[in-house]
Design goal:
A five-stranded mixed sheet has the order 1-3-8-5-6. It is α+β, with helices and mostly antiparallel strands. The relative contact order is 0.09. It has helices spanning 5-9, 13-19, 22-46, 55-62, 147-150, 154-158, 177-195, 202-223, 235-248, 251-255, 260-266, 271-282, 286-304, 309-315, 321-332, 336-344, and strands at residues 49-52, 71-75, 86-89, 92-96, 102-106, 109-113, 117-121, 126-128, 141-145, 173-174. Strand 5 (102-106) and strand 6 (109-113) form a beta hairpin. It is globular. The chain folds into three domains: 5-46, no CATH class; 49-223, Jelly Rolls (Sandwich), CATH 2.60.120; 235-344, Arc Repressor Mutant, subunit A (Orthogonal Bundle).
Length: 345
């Protein structure tokens, strides 16, 4: 008897046709189609991309309660077995591995993750592994915090200085037992604040705790810098740098809004090919990443500078402030002025 798809592949289909009576030939092809369809669906599910847009979505996926929509701490030993999944993150994530780890896909490269390693993921990055069909019991810890948690705080202004939130990192970095205790102590303090009722000190203590953790990680990273030039063949690394340079160098103010065409030209590709490559790895197009970058820069400028809406619009490449206002409202849900009033009071 044929038990599964692999049995059919190992059997001569022509011989099956000969052995079957005419009345059962159509039934045989029906089952064959079902088997192939199921295999196709399974393969698509295994290689699908999960959009972890916010902490609540991620928490629901692993089956834990969302204590706070902007920050969360997970002990993986207390969650259900999971299937490997590649995820597009909408928040910052800091992983500490304590159990069996292995190769993880980070952007377009394999990411070496071993027991005792730290891993870092930033919003808009893809991280994880394709589902091989086998569930596993995760271990370790995960700190998650949304960009809105640190917006208009001193921490927001230094997030770009932490080098490990970059696709340029092809490996997690290993920390010593003593360093691991420091990380766990930072997690413990943040977890304490999340478990207790919020008061006037809670947010400041949580944000300070996150900054302390990231500063320690910078120290660990500095101690373990590898010699030699890093390969920068990863298109995602270069695209991140292109986005940063275009807006921070003042090019946007001189040349206008960043376009997919401009990015594709920098990579000597057609716009379609460039977007297709990004979408294959991240599930998102180049336009999505450009829009997300402009939204983030606009929000930062609105809450951390005294620039007028007109000045912010021009600095981002908008020719007219009215265009910027309409664009911002379409993407954020409110006007720039309303957002500034809501955040800054």
């Amino acid at each position: 008897m044929l038990q599964n798809y692999s049995d059919i592949l190992q059997f001569d289909v022509y011989k099956i046709w000969i052995m079957l009576p005419i009345s059962k030939i159509s039934l045989f092809f029906f089952y064959l189609c079902v088997i192939f369809a199921n295999e196709t669906i399974l393969c698509e599910a295994m290689n699908s991309l999960f959009y972890a847009n916010d902490i609540a979505t991620y928490s629901e996926w692993i089956g834990v309660e969302t204590r706070n929509p902007l920050v969360g701490l997970i002990d993986f030993s207390k969650v259900k077995p999971l299937h490997p999944t590649r995820k597009l993150y909408g928040f910052y994530a800091v992983f500490l591995g304590v159990g069996k780890c292995g190769k993880i896909r980070y952007g377009m490269n394999d990411y070496n993750y071993q027991k005792g390693d730290l891993m870092f993921v930033a919003p808009g990055q893809v991280f994880g592994a394709d589902d091989d069909g086998a569930a596993f019991q995760p271990s370790g810890f995960l700190l998650m915090f949304h960009p809105d948690l640190v917006r208009s705080t001193p921490l927001e202004n230094v997030m770009s200085k932490y080098p490990y939130f970059s696709y340029g990192m092809n490996d997690a970095f290993h920390i010593s037992r003593e360093e691991r205790l420091i990380v766990m102590d930072c997690f413990r303090r943040i977890g304490y604040e999340l478990r207790h009722p919020t008061d006037e000190h809670s947010w400041e203590l949580i944000i300070d705790g996150i900054k302390t953790l990231l500063d320690y990680c910078s120290r660990f990273f500095t101690h373990q810098l590898m010699t030699g030039e890093k390969q920068e063949s990863d298109i995602l690394v270069k695209f991140e740098r292109l986005l940063d340079d275009y807006f921070h160098s003042g090019t946007a103010k001189m040349n206008g809004l960043l376009t997919v065409q401009h990015c594709a030209d920098e990579f000597r590709m057609s716009p379609t090919h460039f977007s297709d490559m990004l979408k294959k790895e991240t599930g998102r197009t180049a336009s999505f990443f450009i829009t997300a970058k402009v939204i983030d820069l606009a929000k930062r400028a609105l809450v951390s500078s005294e620039e007028t809406v007109n000045e912010i619009a021009y600095s981002l490449g908008f020719q007219y402030s009215q265009h910027f206002t309409r664009w911002f409202k379409n993407n954020v849900g409110c006007t720039p002025g309303e957002y500034r009033t809501y955040i800054c009071g």
